[in-house]
Amino acid sequence: MVRPGLELTTSRRVDGELMATYPAPGLYFQVTAPASAQALRTGVPAFLGRAGSGPWTTTPLARPGDFASAYPGSSGYLAAAVDGFFANGGQRCHVVRLRDDLPAPGALAAGLAALEDADADLVCVPDLVTASAWPDTADLTAVTDRQRQVLDHCAARGDRFAVLDAVPSGSASTVLAQRAALSGPSAAYGALYAPWLVADGNLMVPPCGHVSGVYAAVDDASGTQRAPAGIPLSTVLDVQVHWATDDLAQLSAAGVNAVLALPGRGFRIWGARTVSDDPAWRDVTARRVVAEIVRRLETFMTDLVDEPNDVRLWVRIMRELTAYLEGLYRRGALRGDSADSAFFVKCDSETNPPDTGATGQVVTQVGVCLAAQAEVLVLTVVRTADGSDVRAA
Questions:
Q1: Mean pLDDT of the chain
Q2: How far apart are CA 165 and CA 139, in angstroms?
């Protein structure tokens, strides 16, 4: 018998596979442990903005000093956003240098396209609005059109979330008008934060960098099911606006997440709402947990493209997805008295009748009960022979 920890000293190759050889006839057991699925890192933002120099390609950064080395002499708010991210617990991000000043739609579209293969799950565009005095009569269309462009990108992928900056206005009505203009089918894929922050050096900066750092820190400590709120912000000296009680009530009711100065508690994010009008998707954690599930499903199902579509594949899909969802349940991302009541995975002859198999598709239904909402969400995942897939929520 071959026991764990012992190595075989002889081997032979059969049909291209390395096979162990044994000295005498008999029954032998070899224990092998399947490789565990690599955890997908969350809280990884992509920052798109202006830089005076540096690469045009998507650049991953892992240390606070990496940005200055890659993009020396940068202007705009890209550098400040990256600094705020690392100062508040961020560990890894991507930077895309845009070729034209924003809010040019073509420049933003090209930047988003450059993120196709990046492992980012958050998107921030700190240079969409400026920190100069913002008149309350200014036209918000140029800003909100580009922010909807970012939301549409996240929605089309299904696995990204936009951290959006409010315009630097001292008027709550202006921010509320911006929030109203962001409503639409893709609004569940982003959250809006106000006001702007006074950071080290008395520089007024958009909140997305500091906020995304909180996302990363909370994800690392607890997971996407924990709301990125209530955490003290680092390197913040003040906020642009101290909202009056009535203004704060209106902003919170509309789903704008405020940064507040709390006496003795520092500056904290007060709210974790998306800009969606759909009650099922108003909670940031609900959308991000589903985005994490979508990323896992896509990664796993992509590896099955060349597998025979038969009952063995169905069993493997159900076994591995069940193990993954059980992990989500144990960490508190799914709600239920037991794992059986928190989720289900179905991949069998009912979801894959003969007509479906003949087209080269394997269909899996995944249902989850999110801890952040009372609804049950059912995802239908279709894996086709060419690797493309369709997801429906």
A1: 84
A2: 16
Q: What is the pLDDT of residue 374?
A: 39
What would the pLDDT profile of 329-382 be if each residue is shown by its tens digit?
999 999 999 999 999 999 999 998 888 766 778 888 999 998 875 345 676 767
Q: From the CB of residue 52, how many other CB atoms can be counted at a distance below 10 Å?
A: 13
The answer to whether position 10 is within a domain reads: no
Count other Cβ atoms within 10 Å, centred on residue 73: 10
Query: In the numeric block, which tokens belong to residue 244?
Result: 């009056």
Taking residues 161-189, report their average pLDDT: 95
Q: Is the pLDDT of residue 306 over 50?
A: yes
Query: For the chain, what is the domain count?
Result: 2
State the CATH number of the domain containing residue 314: 3.30.360.90
Domain with 229 in it: 45-271
Which pLDDT value is given to residue 82?
96
Tokens 């159900």, located at residue: 318
Q: Considering all CA atoms of the chain, what is the largest pairwise distance in Å, rounded to the nearest integer?
A: 89
Within-domain flag for 15 = no
Give CA–CA dist 92/59, Å, rounded: 11
CATH of the domain at 235: 3.40.50.11780
CA-closest candidate to residue 126, choices 79, 159, 175, 194: 79
H/E stretch holding 61 = strand 59-61
* Pair 172, 181: CB distance under 8 Å: no
For tokens 């890659």, the residue is 70
What is the Cα–Cα distance from 361 to 387, expressed in whole angstroms?
A: 10
Q: From edge to edge, which strands make up the β-sheet containing 236-239?
A: 203-205, 197-199, 236-239
> What pairing do the DSSP bridges indicate for beta strands 203-205 and 11-14?
unpaired
Beta pairing class for 256-262 and 266-270 = antiparallel
